[in-house]
Specification:
By secondary structure, the chain is α/β, with parallel strands linked by helices. The chain has 13 helices and 6 strands. A 6-stranded mixed sheet has the order 3-2-1-4-5-6. Strand 5 (143-148) and strand 6 (155-158) form a beta hairpin. The longest helix has 17 residues, at 32-48.
Length: 282
């Protein structure tokens, strides 16, 4: 199981902080994101029973994508001050479980996940745990994705054979779809004026951005104009959307084997005054 660490931490933080409920230790250290992360994580372990676990992380806001497009994710505000100390704190908790924390400067957690998924899918079934729809492009032989839904214990699992029935296209076509429609969350526009409905229809009919461009004279005049007027941004948006699966990260299955010393985990929970998590650890 490859865990999208940032997705779980942000989700956990905001799920518990919307009423200003920042759990804190007696020393004033906020722990609400860590607490909810562990509730999500331990539920997923209980449900999916992985034999190996790796947790992947972003390593800062500057990546090769921000070099390609300065406004990439430029619409995102700074993280709340109560969340900032929890970035390192959660890695300490993950480490207490003897789970490898993986990240690489200049790349996103998604790129680490994509690379590790490709490396291990030839030897073992890989499940990616995330709340991020972008990762659906990685679904393939031996690679499935569990998207977390609202609450704890609610997942939508995507596998290669059933994916077209769920999404109407193949997993790899997600990249072309996002190239056309853009991504408001990551702040890149795609083709201005083309939304998800039109983009999906084009991908279903023509397959890829390249084939759409080759057949551009067959498209409605309005769609032709939008694509021609935004050709550079179309190509750039596709590049931004594509998860890299060949970056220089490695983690052996031996290092990722799911086992831990319960005493170390319990000690860490008690240090953070999260003793009520102890009952969730088998």
């Amino acid at each position: 199981m490859l865990v999208d660490g940032m997705a779980l931490l942000f989700r956990g933080f905001f799920a518990t902080a919307f009423r200003g409920n920042f759990m804190k230790t007696s020393k004033g250290l906020p722990t609400n994101g860590v607490y909810q992360f562990m509730r999500y994580f331990l539920d997923a372990v209980d449900k999916f029973t992985p034999s190996h676990v790796i947790c992947c992380w972003d390593m800062g806001s500057k990546t090769f994508r921000t070099e390609l497009y300065n406004d990439y994710k430029g619409n995102r505000s700074e993280p709340p001050e109560e969340l900032i100390p929890q970035f390192e704190l959660i890695k300490e908790v993950v480490d207490a479980f003897d789970i490898p924390n993986v990240g690489l400067e200049n790349f996103e957690a998604d790129d680490c996940i994509g690379t590790l998924a490709r490396q291990h899918a030839t030897d073992i079934d890989v499940l990616i745990l995330t709340g991020d729809q972008d990762i659906l492009q990685l679904v393939d032989d031996g690679i499935s994705v569990a998207i977390m839904r609202k609450g704890i214990g609610n997942y939508e699992v995507f596998e290669k054979d059933t994916f077209p029935g769920q999404k109407g296209i193949q997993p790899k076509q997600i990249v072309d779809l996002k190239g056309l429609m853009g991504d408001t969350s990551d702040n890149y526009p795609g083709v201005k004026g083309i939304g998800e409905k039109t983009a999906l229809k084009l991908i279903q009919e023509y397959g890829t951005i390249e084939q759409i461009i080759e057949s551009i004279n067959k498209l409605p005049k309005g769609v032709q104009k939008k694509i021609r007027d935004n050709m550079d941004m179309l190509q750039l948006s596709r590049q931004l959307a594509e998860i890299k699966c060949d970056i220089s990260v490695k983690c052996s299955l031996e290092d990722a084997a799911w086992h831990y010393d319960k005493r170390i985990v319990e000690s860490k929970f008690r240090d953070l005054e999260l003793g009520n998590l102890v009952k969730l650890v088998n």
